[in-house]
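PT: before anyone asks, these are the final sequences, not the draft ones from last week. 889 residues across everything. Please model them as a single complex and drop the result in this thread when it's through.
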Amino acid sequence: MKNMVGKLKKIVGAEWVRTDQLSTYYHASDVMTHFGQGNLYPQNKPMAVVYPGSAPQIQGIVNLARKHDLPIYPVGGGTVLLIGSIPGKPNAGITLDFRRMQRIEVDRERMVVRAQPGATGLQVSQLVREMNLGYRPYFGGSPGTSLFVPYQVFTGQNKMAGYQDGMGINCAAGMELVLGNGEVLRTGSMAHPQAPGWPHGPGPALTYLPFFSNGGYGIVTEMEFRLFPTPREVRSLWVTFPTLRSAVKAMYNVMMKDYACGATVMGPGCWTHALYSSKHWQEGAHFVKATQDINLIGMSFRGTPAKVAFEQKACIRILEEEGGTVMPPWMVAILDGHEENAAGWQQCNSPKICGTFNGKSDSGGIFVSGGVFDSLEKLEEYMDRGMKIYQQVCRENPVFLNHPHPILRLYASCGQTYLSMGGHANAAGEVIFLVDYARQDFLPYIGAIKGKFDGLMQEIGMAPLGVGRDKRTWTECPAHFAMAKVIKKVIDPSGFLSPGVSFPLSE
Amino acid sequence: MTREELLDKALSCNRCGSCRGVSQDTVPNPSFSLQCPSGMTLLGAYEPAGLMYIARGLALGALKWDKDLADFLYSCTLCGYCEDLCSRGYRHTPSITILEELRRIIPDELKPPSLTRLAQYLCRVEGNKLSLLKAYGITDPDEEGRTDTIIFADRTIMANPSKLHEIGFILQKSGQQIGCFMNKPLPPVDTALLNAGFTGQLEECIEEIDARIETRGVKQVICYNPESLSVLLRHSNSRAEFIPITRLYSRMVAKKPHKKLKMPAVTYQDPCHLGRYAREYVAPRRVIAGLGLELKEMWRTRQDSLCCGSGGGVLFNKPALAKRYASNRWEEAKATGARLMITACPFCNINLNASKPKGLDVVDLTSLMAEAYGYKGKGVDR
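LR: through. Structure below.
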């Protein structure tokens, strides 16, 4: 290892290779480990942390690692809230931390913004806002303030703007990728200096290939994102329903009219979605308290003031026909984060979820069980049966509901499900629970719920969320994952790129 | 603090990393998006979450003190941004409490000797020139008996005649009866004791301060040095009110006639211990406006202000690093178009002065106040 560290220092400079105990300890775990998902995202120390400063340095590192079969685990701007930013194999590899590479450039001619992997989504948004272009990037579902993920390319889709602007994958226009053999691949808008800011032309869309591979197909060194027009007017609407069924039916009706840029149906205690879009924890807490016993549709409108006003009025009429009641202005008055979110600006989300959970200084985490559906009917069934399962487990384990921490109890008592609709969205369902990771005795309850939900998902025929680490795949489609593995084998035969992250170690 | 208590506090941080960035909507340069001086300059585990991991690792037995850990710990300026941001909507991690505790429990052989010397120097009464204030009508409560308002004399003014003249002049112009323990000064505490981990010594000093101001019936204590102010605000049990001198200035410019200063646009550096620790953002800006100056704010301002780099003892322990921290701030100041940076902290002043680029300058707000009220002495350090 000493020899290897010496070689790495030659590539990046001595001060940019750290092997001290804190650096390796620090990069061994992240927010996912502490979200109560320690089993799925265990603490794995790298042998060294390397800070590359350029693409040629990354090439040098990749070539060295390949030669010595040394696993490489890249980390972008910080913690990643899906799959994690920690090594998939303990004490075996090196972590590449890209925080020396934070350059961001806006190309007004081609209407793209180019970012290095150490930049955060927030930094990109701040710069573009300052330029007042009338356009903005959209990082669909990518985690917020501190976290940017071009290296592993997040393809999430949540929040309101995402329903119209698409998933993260739809916003990327091109990328520069160092492959496992050390070659540099430039795709889409970055294939040629004059290439237009389109994600792809005729032919295979290679830009999309590395999405969710989390460094498994190569290391992204730069990425370009499309810019979207900034809406002139944005407004959100929140409507409560007596039953989940009536809310879902109302949602169908709205969808049939193609109104609203994004809408979500949420079951009782619909805090997850609320917190994803909240600007501050007070907003999230307010929302949670206001929605403990109700079914809710949240949606947003954007465009010209006239369009927004017309669509909002039309949707209220449709929703009221199914028994919906518009939430009063005082109740939504502080939901400024949702308007901001609907406008499509980068927001921090999940760290705030933790903050709201934890109240003062208690530690805690969330447990997520959810999946992707190919029909709304399946999702509705999942929501309905899932809630019953959750309630049953809670009844059988009263300690789970009677947690002494009042805030903890508040959230633990409300399983949440939602479905979403919109331009690019599939139906998605999610049930999220809280655990106190400092209290390991809570894990069996969570495990019981998780096990039942996994069974339910299989029964209904849906794809669970989560990939890699627990041997799940992107879609639970065997053919899809088999193809992904074939590609992996071709471009990374020895499997040194992020082993145990998106591609399970056993593969 | 027990190991369990330390762990409990440290576990509040789950490395979400939000405190690395600032919360304003726009910046002209991505490097102005970052906030933690050590995290943005030295990367990785130097950022706040890394420091919290020291506490977590030590409490769990996963880490052991060594020179590297000490380097991480003493590269932090204790600016307080991480804790402040965390409390605004994240996890309420008590970073400062944790960092001060780490500085207390670190083995003596790893404590930087420069910080120990500095703490002993800054918090000891020495070179006392406070009697100069008598020329401006300042009285000594030990001689006069009860005194409602006093100026707290820390080491940055106690042995600094030019600053004493400026302050004395301004206090006289305020028309307010203000005292100062001159013959036997109060222990001149500031954050140096906390930076060096001498919390026990600090408590002793604070006890003496509390007892003496209580005896003399002091109701209000004016602090020139924000680091003294923040220590007194956080640790004193006295019923007296501790206020920054900028609040006095603010009242003066609103009520007492003074000349308007003529100079190009200025920018203002919020000192961490005046801003985030003492929540004083308004008064200095009122003073600047009252003096007739055009203020061009930097992007990182008020509670999102970037530390100048001098805090936490970095200025004395790692002066080259303090300059590196300050250089990013100067870039930001330059981008506003201002040519003069105003601050209200002697340590900001020293560090920013030492690292200022050509064509830019830094000045103490007190000097500007003195100038506006007609002070002609040597103390005007612009």
